[in-house]
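Note to self: the last two entries modelled the partners one at a time, which told us nothing about the interface. This time every component goes in together.
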Amino acid sequence: MQKNIQYNAEGELQHFLTIDDLHRETLEQILDTAENFAGVNDKAIKKAPLLRGKTVANIFFENSTRTRTTFELAAKRLSADVLNVNLVTSSTKKGESLLDTLRNLEAMQCDMFIVRHGDSGAAHFIANHVSEHISVVNGGDGQHSHPTQGMLDMFTIRRAKGSFENLCVVIIGDILHSRVARSDIAALRILGTREIRVVAPRTLLPADVEAMGVSVYHNIEQALQDADVIMGLRLQNERMQGATVPSADEFFLTYGLTQERLQLAKPDAIVMHPGPTNRGVEIDGLVADGPQSFILQQVTFGIAVRMAVMAITMSANQNPIGSNVDESGTSQANSVTSNPISG
Amino acid sequence: MQKNIQYNAEGELQHFLTIDDLHRETLEQILDTAENFAGVNDKAIKKAPLLRGKTVANIFFENSTRTRTTFELAAKRLSADVLNVNLVTSSTKKGESLLDTLRNLEAMQCDMFIVRHGDSGAAHFIANHVSEHISVVNGGDGQHSHPTQGMLDMFTIRRAKGSFENLCVVIIGDILHSRVARSDIAALRILGTREIRVVAPRTLLPADVEAMGVSVYHNIEQALQDADVIMGLRLQNERMQGATVPSADEFFLTYGLTQERLQLAKPDAIVMHPGPTNRGVEIDGLVADGPQSFILQQVTFGIAVRMAVMAITMSANQNPIGSNVDESGTSQANSVTSNPISG
Amino acid sequence: MQKNIQYNAEGELQHFLTIDDLHRETLEQILDTAENFAGVNDKAIKKAPLLRGKTVANIFFENSTRTRTTFELAAKRLSADVLNVNLVTSSTKKGESLLDTLRNLEAMQCDMFIVRHGDSGAAHFIANHVSEHISVVNGGDGQHSHPTQGMLDMFTIRRAKGSFENLCVVIIGDILHSRVARSDIAALRILGTREIRVVAPRTLLPADVEAMGVSVYHNIEQALQDADVIMGLRLQNERMQGATVPSADEFFLTYGLTQERLQLAKPDAIVMHPGPTNRGVEIDGLVADGPQSFILQQVTFGIAVRMAVMAITMSANQNPIGSNVDESGTSQANSVTSNPISG
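The predicted structure of the combined assembly is written out below.
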């Protein structure tokens, strides 16, 4: 059996790259830990000292203000030092020079790399090449995986519904190109969801969609019957130019989540979307802002879930937290403070 | 009477958008609080724990390194986490999508928005739409208002002159386009200044200038007679191309603050300017650097005044500071620290 | 004798601009202090409270993500607030307006300026014009000096070799344009290195190279005989276009550090390079990644050395650290905390 590089030798989660091959216990550990941090974020002082003195490098090869911001906030609320490393502009850098950049960040004694990259598999590549004292967290790689988004979606569902066993979850839209959909489906299956439905035109479904363990629908009204959870996906602009769907208007007509269609689901069904929403394309603005919408809660829970992932993976790398943590933060540096400047 | 959205239900200052409709007591509270923070900034350790665990988002729709930097320093010296959100590049975003951006920052549990925007009224619009746990501070909106600049100018004057009742203040230059002038005049009036004079060519004065409660001059020598405080304003480059003034040289000849003209004011008159100065346009370099110049003190006091505004407005929002503040910063997170990682 | 502006009236190092005219004791103080900080960086919590409440402004007139990042990390690990001021885009700013920018940063009560500039002498110019409570650290100016790089190289050598008296150090490549080479040679001489050799084509050597106190070689095989330390230098792209060397390939053929050539040095010789390396130009990738390479250790030690330089120079300026340091960080602000908001 091939080694799963996400777990260290002790079986602890050191990297967080994809949900696909994680144990159910790991997912539940992330959700339970995030519950603790959601409490921190509700307090007047949103600050936990857990990663004090740790350096988190946000390494973004692809622009994403939104995701970078939530990771940055999560790290700061854990008291880490954050380094934003924007490599979008140096897109020609490849292979060896990417590794050179990583080696240098390692040498600066960073403890965690948050990686966002346009190529599927980039986060795995990096995790395979970093030294033991680093944790790698995938902030989205190509069309492959966006596991922290997947886990914040699971957190949102568990908060609203309690558990997964009896749920019918419907995912609408561009399954083919969505790393969010892939991560959500993996997580929902591992957590034992009763039924997962996807509904989309054939052009937005992967060829092997049945193998994903989902029921496939092409009619949204049928798909929404008795749904507990309805997840929209963002339709990228380039898809709306007639390449894979006739037009944005046509898509809304056939697959848009309207108030009328929402009534086909269970009365207490919740509506989710990874954002940013295209109102009038995937979703009616009245639904996005309506009482069943959990879209903004997803953003809020995203901070807590990212804090949880950071805390868990950091505690599994070779620079463990808490080993000699001193709450006042001073005794660590006593030898330095008492007579710091030689000569 | 229309509700003043700057004050909360308890009459405390929750937002700081414009000076125009504030009570004199509020202005004095800001000045008194800034005195405390000016003391902090003089100390070897320029740090107060007041906003520890709070997240301040600097939302800039308009470039301004200078203003952004002073707000960032003010927030950091209050121990807040600072998020710089640059929306200059996404200038096409309008209406709904601006609100979407704000809703997301709210969902990330930010506590304060510092807003800089090219449109007059933008800060009010945002304050009208944020949830109760957010404070909005106007960092300059269009030609409308720049209230923290106004208050730092008042702080500078009070430091130098003690009180406002007996003062003659002269404001020179582009009153028409200056949000600084508007904020200064409002503050000076509320604080009971004896006489406010403006001096400028007609093309740089608003049509309703008399209604602002100021005396209008077109001759700088007359305006400077017996002045206690002389405030220059920055002349934007586009005004110097012959559109509203014949040329930069011509402006300096007629309205520039020279050493010779300065002697017409009281011997202890102080010279102020919001910066950056155009030397040889609004002001002679020798005056800007001379013994009567308070231009750099304005920058210094600007940090203390912004700390005061942040502290006061934050204490009035629904996420009050100090409610369960623990100086060591650890007990808040005890449940997390003691057993943070579930499973 | 001209005053050395790097030392204050008490003979303490207030600015760190160039290694050339420093005392040996100062260099040893920096190395000894860096030893303490290297310990901090090895710990789980890489944080010392020494510069808590201080503001460090990273003022970069020249792009250098790498150097800026190490200074930023060093400052954050000393608990300082860091302000990144990018002036690359405003390259037309000159003379007076540079001073205006500095005066404003001073007025914001920054305590330290890290300066990177394309013009030789820029850091000295700035140090000559700042007020007494500021320390200036040169982060590289033109072809003049890069003293923190010089000191991290010395730290690396001392860690590997213990002392300098018996060493033979060989510097290969573009001595003419390298501020690193200049700083290294100055430091090696002050620290009493037995022999310093430089090896390069004549086009990459300064006219007065003999006056630098080094032995000059044009044959790399001869230069490497019995070497203890081998330092490569980065060859800039513009030199490889036939201007000063025939081509990158030709340079590697004649001066590249290969495994074969490395064997001419002592068996325990160490290989260094300031990075980023041009593999196949100055150095063979196998040597750069080989067991004798200290290239990544240089990066690691660079953080500790920059922490040492910051701590030493800050303690010599007019805003001394430690004078009223309170570890909990609260008593400083007591007057503010107990009743911060007036009115």
